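WARN retry 2 of 3 for item q-0093 after timeout on previous attempt; input resubmitted unchanged.
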Amino acid sequence: MYHIAICDDDNIFAAHLAKKVEEFFHNTETSVSIHIFSEGCQLLSYSGQIELYLLDIRMPELSGTELAEKIRAGCGKDDSSIIFVSSMHDAVFDSFKYHPLRFIRKELLDDELGEALLAFLRSVSSRHKDFELQVQENRTQIMLPISDLYYVEPYGHYLDFHCVNRILHIRGRIGDYEGILNEHYFAKANRGCLINLHYVSSFTAKSVILKNGQDFPLTRTCRSSFQSAYMKWERENKHVLTI
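OK item q-0093 returned
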C-alpha cells in the first residue's frame, strides 16, 4: 500500500484531487491510503509514512515550495516523490530545486495527472530493482543486488541463491528471507522455491517458466498467492491499466 499526502488550502479542490487519485490507483488495482491536509504545518506534524506528496504552491503560512524544502530536509523523507499541483505556472522553474517528479497545472488536471502517477509507479519500481540484500557465504559478507537474483531454493540446512552469474550457498531457511523478498516482487511457486517475478516468462495452473527456460511446479497451495503477486508486479512494472 502507498501512502499519499495532498496539501491544498482549497478544500473543495483537495477533495476533487483525492477522488481523481483514488480512481487512478483503483483502475491499476493498487492499494493506497490518501491523507488530506489544508496547511503545511499539519502535514509536517504527521508522523506516518508518506511515499508521494501532492502539493499546492500558493498556501498560507507555508508555501508548497517551502513545504517541499522541509520535506526534503526531513529524516527518511528524501526519497519520497513530490508532485506540485498549482495554477502558478511561473513557479515551475523555481520548483526544480526540490526535485519534483512532475508539475501539474490545475486547469489541466485531467490531462496531466495520470501520466504523473504513472511516473510515480515507475520511480517506485526502479527503487525496488536497485535494492541490495546482505547475505553471508563462508563468513564473507556479500551485498547481493536483487536484480541479479533469479530464485532461492533450499538445499539441506542451506539455501541456494541462483543468480545471473553465480550460485551462492547460504546457511538459513526460506522464511528468513521470504518477508523482505516478497516486498521486492518475489513469490513462492511451491513450498521450497521463491522466484523473482521479473524473470518469469509465463505460468500455468501447474508450472512457472523463467525466461532462461527453467520450469518449476506451481502447487495448489501457492497458486492463488503467486497469481496475486504476479498481477501486482505486472501493474507496477508494465503499468497496465484496467478500465
